[in-house]
Amino acid sequence: MKKVTIIGSGNIGLSLAKGLVNKAFCSPKEVTLTRRNIQHLTEAVSLGFEISSNNAEAIKGAHIIVLAILPQQLNDVLEEIANHLDPKKQLIVSVISGVTCRDIKNKLGQDIQIIRAMPNTAISIGQSMTCIAGEEASKENMQEVTRMFETVGAVMKINEDLMTAATALCSCGIAFFLRGIRAASQGGVEVGFHADEALKMAVQTAKGAADLLLQTHSHPESEIDKVTSPKGCTIAGLNEMEHNGFSSSLIKGIKLSAIKAGGLYSADS
Predict the structure, then answer these.
(1) What is the DSSP letter of 73?
(2) 67: annotated binding-site residue?
(3) 110 CB contacts (<8 Å, ≥6 apart)?
(4) Are 198 and 185 a contacting pair, CB within 8 Å?
(5) For NADPH, which residues are the binding ones (predicted)?
(6) Among the three residues 127, 158, 189, which one is the final residue of a domain in this structure?
(7) Which CA distances in Å does 95 have to 118, 203, 230, 233?
(8) Residue 130 in contact with residue 121, Cβ under 8 Å?
(9) What is the CATH number of the domain that holds 127?
(10) Boundary of a domain, candidates 123, 158, 193
(11) Are 219 and 115 in a shared domain?
């Protein structure tokens, strides 16, 4: 068991804390959650977590320190904790969009071990797709962080230069797929279903499509081929969507989100 401090306990931070406890990574008493206004942590208190509004105090004795704050809050937080860190015993895990390991090392010193992680909001139900990177981190620390985030979903190790791309595809991607489900449900209303019926049908169909690929390790196009027949209704619908830019608009959206994700943090802010 290792003590974990999560600085910035909003939706991502609190969901991670719950996952760590649910999967027996640690006990609630071994997790300290911080937030400027601790009145927002009443649920955390009821679950047995330690809470604090003092980041410097909260990291004392912690083996892993998770930074789950906004990019514009980073410099202030690093100033608070810089003189209280033990580089030989503490590991920093950053889930902050657009912030590199180098950005943090430049503030805290080159000896500190830092691993970046990019989960998405499905972390709240233990279904996150989390990408992690830390070229200069030890193998043991990478394994430990992998275990941490496996408590709340799937984990993939990537090169850090792909982190902004991962942000767009996995973190922003939740919104893209949700918008697709919303559009499908609206189409269902157009063809005669009530809104609640259409939404339920669209959600389950999307879930079935995802599970089909996850469980069969198949490629999307091979599964599409199974449901398209000559002169059929499926290929007609697919072609109409493609003529109106379905795939190209999704690709362009992911590329633009990646560009935006790369510019969220300024070291001078």
Answers:
(1) G
(2) no
(3) none
(4) yes
(5) 55
(6) 158
(7) 5, 28, 47, 44
(8) no
(9) 3.40.50.720
(10) 158
(11) no
| Cα-only R_g, the chain | 21
Are the CB atoms for 189 and 195 separated by under 8 Å?
yes
Distance between CA atoms of 55 and 21, rounded to whole angstroms? 21
78 is in an annotated binding site: no
**Phi/psi at 92 (nearest 5 deg)?**
-95, 130
Residue 70 assigned as binding residue: yes
What tens digit of pLDDT does each residue of 67-88 get?
A: 999 999 999 999 999 999 999 8
Asked if residue 164 belongs to a domain, the reply is no
User: What is the domain extent for residue 68?
Assistant: 4-158
Single pTM value for the model: 0.90
Give tens-digit pLDDT for 190-205.
Answer: 999 999 999 999 999 9
Find the CATH number of the domain harbouring 206: 1.10.3730.10
Question: Does residue 58 fall inside a structural domain?
Answer: yes
Query: Could you give the number of structural domains in the chain?
Result: 2
